[in-house]
Design goal:
Blueprint: H1 2-21, H2 23-57, H3 60-76, H4 82-92, H5 96-106, H6 112-118, H7 127-139, H8 142-163, H9 170-179, H10 189-221, H11 232-239, H12 241-246, H13 252-264, H14 267-276, H15 285-309
Length: 310
């Protein structure tokens, strides 16, 4: 533990020294990150943040869970309550899925074990990022983006099936479904949802700015020849997803690496996810297992699919 504290202190001191030694580059990285937030992240994520809050507050999640319990239980051994988190996570992008799980758990709709297992596969990249950033800016093909999204969805579902294969809570999930029905509705949920969503999106943007600056400082330490290495995007994407994706080549290897990066998410995404789970008592053990497993599963899936793309 003491060694960990020392290493953490050294890391912080190094980052502070980098800010002092390279103020111009650091400031430019922060400006680029804020541009990314205003032009991409806030427009794409904020509506889904608000939608997920309204979805749960008005009780629609209960009806949704009842309708999809016949899908969630055979696939994952879970109640239908998690279906809204999985669906919103696949449509809204990081970290909408994790935020929805935390809200469902806080409302009593999801039991703890289900919520913690759901964290491992419901927090995913959204179609807006995949089709806009990956397909548009890197591969210049909407068809390639659709295949990437398909790989991403399948890898998430397979991860969920593996993670939940021995979940011994089927009887408990049935009782949770019956006990979580509510017809209460009030217009006051709208401003509450907007305010909580605003707080959540500001946290996300703060982490985007921080990790963008840290990544630029890291790049200053690398030799210029490093950018020519085929696995250079993995290093960038391990820290910050969008920069890793932007460095990919339009090739079968680039397609496969893109699928891996989308499944992993990057340290910046993980920090955003942990921030939305900060007020929850949920363990993140299954979240980390799920992200690693999904990244591994994405390799063979993407490599096989790449034969149809290139």
């Amino acid at each position: 533990m003491k060694l960990r504290k020392i290493l953490f202190f050294v890391l912080i001191a190094s980052c502070a020294a980098g800010l002092l030694l390279f103020p111009t580059q650091s400031a430019q990285a922060a400006r680029d990150a804020m541009t990314l937030c205003f032009q991409t992240i806030i427009p794409s994520l904020f509506p889904f943040f608000a939608l997920s809050s309204l979805f749960i507050s008005c009780g629609a999640a209960n009806d949704f869970s009842y309708a999809l319990r016949g899908v969630m239980r055979p696939l994952f051994g879970l109640s239908g309550a998690g279906a809204s988190a999985l669906t919103l996570g696949l449509l809204g992008g990081y970290p909408v899925g994790a935020r929805t799980v935390a809200e469902l758990f806080a409302s009593g709709t999801l039991p703890r074990k289900e919520a913690e297992h759901l964290l491992g596969f419901c927090n995913n990249a959204g179609p807006g990022f995949i089709l806009g950033m990956c397909a548009g800016a890197v591969f210049h093909s909407p068809r390639t983006g659709l295949y990437l999204y398909l790989v991403h969805v399948v890898s998430a579902i397979l991860t969920g099936i593996i993670l939940c294969r021995d979940l011994p809570h089927r009887a408990q999930t049935r009782r949770a479904e019956k006990a979580s029905s509510s017809d209460a509705f009030s217009v006051s949920i709208i401003p509450a949802a907007v305010q909580s969503s605003l707080s959540g999106i500001l946290n996300v943007c703060a982490f985007v700015v921080l990790f963008m600056v840290l990544l630029r400082l890291l790049l200053l330490l690398l030799p210029s020849s490093a950018s020519c290495h085929p696995f250079y995007p993995l290093l960038l994407g391990f820290v910050e997803l969008s920069n890793g994706v932007a460095a990919l080549s339009c090739s079968r290897l680039g397609f496969t690496l893109c699928a891996v990066l989308l499944a992993w998410g990057g340290l910046s995404v993980h920090a955003q996810t942990l921030s939305v789970l900060d007020t929850s008592t949920l363990s993140t053990r299954w979240y980390w297992r799920g992200k690693i497993m999904q990244a591994v599963l994405s390799v063979p899936l993407a490599w096989v699919v790449s034969y149809r793309v290139f």
